[in-house]
Design brief:
Blueprint lengths: L8 E3 L2 E7 L8 E4 L6 E2 L2 E2 H11 L7 E5 L5 H4 L2 H6 L3 E4 L4 H6 L1 H17 L4 H12 L16 E3 L5 E3 L5 E6 L8 E6 L6 E6 L15 H10 L20 H12 L3 E6 L8 H26 L6 H8 L8 H17 L3 E5 L5 E5 L2
């Protein structure tokens, strides 16, 4: 088995994967993910990244390409900094607005998610607990400077980069965890096997959530260059949610067909047994889908809100942890609706109810 290209740069529990570019193509380095921007105990994460890069012979000015797997603050935080240093920052088209808007869109979308959970039946006291839990999360300490639009390179499914040793890095569109999600498949020279830089699509210790995404919010902020505080109240309230789990399941199905030898995740250790991780992903969602459907079948003509489904499935789950469970159940309701197995209505109070198709 070929050795790993090198150890990742680790910033907190985030991995940034470095690869040497082919010398005949100009040499230098390519990074998968930009890294997270945070000051921890007086130490800047940028300084940590620079030190780790130099330890493997990677000088910052030699980084030519930074591939951003997805538009989340802990993976794209340093995108603008890399661009300022002259690196080509590469991301899928659906991720570009978030990279331009940065922290402004991130915060606005967090607020819109709370409105969406309310529309799926979540009570105010539970919403308050979810908000308090989120405020204690590390992402509130992270910075995210938006990129200049002209500094960004639009990626396309199938784009390739030549690496040293005859290896080829293939970009693969994998929407699901976010609308602009991608993965990188590093294929061996002369062979079909390779390592998969999975970002947050597949992780060694957890099943990644599909998320609640509102792409139009980032589009608006990126276009006008304002922060949410400068925008008329209510601008984002009716912006539609992108249903992520159906795409997520299709993307992972596509990746399963690759000859993946190892998974190099965005968080956690290298996965030496990819088949196990794919199986865990499939089994988790198959079980969850079956339970969601079974609960809906018991509700009869009245149907159920996503919150009612969650409370039926997880009656003892603490309120602070209901946000993630609600997000995933909403995703499974999307799968049922897309497949024609359920319908969804919205009552005069703005609350969504889902009904099994009879």
């Amino acid at each position: 088995m070929p050795p790993l290209p090198s150890s990742p740069f680790t910033l907190g529990d985030n991995n940034v994967w470095p690869f040497r570019l082919d010398a005949e193509d100009g040499g230098g380095w390519l990074l998968v993910d930009a890294g997270l921007d945070v000051l921890e105990d007086g130490v800047a994460s940028w300084d940590v990244l620079v030190a780790q890069a130099r330890a493997i012979g990677c000088e910052i000015e030699d980084v030519r390409v930074v591939v951003v797997t997805h538009e989340h603050i802990d993976h794209a935080g340093f995108a603008a900094r890399w661009a300022d240093l002259g690196a080509a920052v590469v991301a899928m088209p659906a991720a570009l607005s978030m990279l331009i808007a940065g922290r402004s869109a991130y915060d606005a979308i967090r607020e819109r998610r709370m409105q969406e959970l309310r529309a799926h039946g979540c009570p105010e006291d539970v919403l308050d607990a979810i908000v308090q839990a989120q405020r204690a999360h590390d992402t509130h300490r992270l910075a995210w400077q938006g990129c200049v639009p002209s500094d960004l390179i639009e990626a396309h499914d199938g784009d390739t980069f030549a690496l040293e040793g005859g290896r080829t890095l293939h970009l693969i569109a994998a929407p699901g965890h976010t609308p602009g999600n991608l993965v990188a498949f590093v294929q061996d020279a002369g062979g079909t096997a390779g390592d998969l830089c999975s970002g947050d699509t597949l992780l060694p210790t957890t099943i990644p959530t599909p998320g609640l995404h509102f792409p139009a919010i980032a589009d608006v902020i990126a276009e006008i260059g304002h922060t949410p505080g400068d925008i008329r109240p209510g601008t984002f309230e009716e912006m539609e949610r992108w249903p992520s789990l159906p795409s997520f399941l299709r993307s992972v199905g596509r990746l399963r067909a690759l000859n993946v030898r190892r998974i190099l995740p965005g968080h956690g250790p290298v996965v030496e047994d990819p088949a196990r991780l794919f199986a865990q992903f499939d089994e988790h969602h198959a079980r969850r889908s079956q339970r969601v459907r079974a609960h809906l079948e018991l509700t009869g003509a009245d149907g159920a809100t996503a919150y009612e489904v969650v409370r039926g499935l997880f009656p003892r789950l603490p309120a602070a942890r209901l946000g993630q469970a609600l997000t995933e159940v909403i995703g499974h309701l999307d799968v049922l609706v897309e497949g024609g197995d359920a319908t969804q209505t919205r009552d005069e109070d703005g609350i969504f109810r889902t009904h099994i198709a009879r």
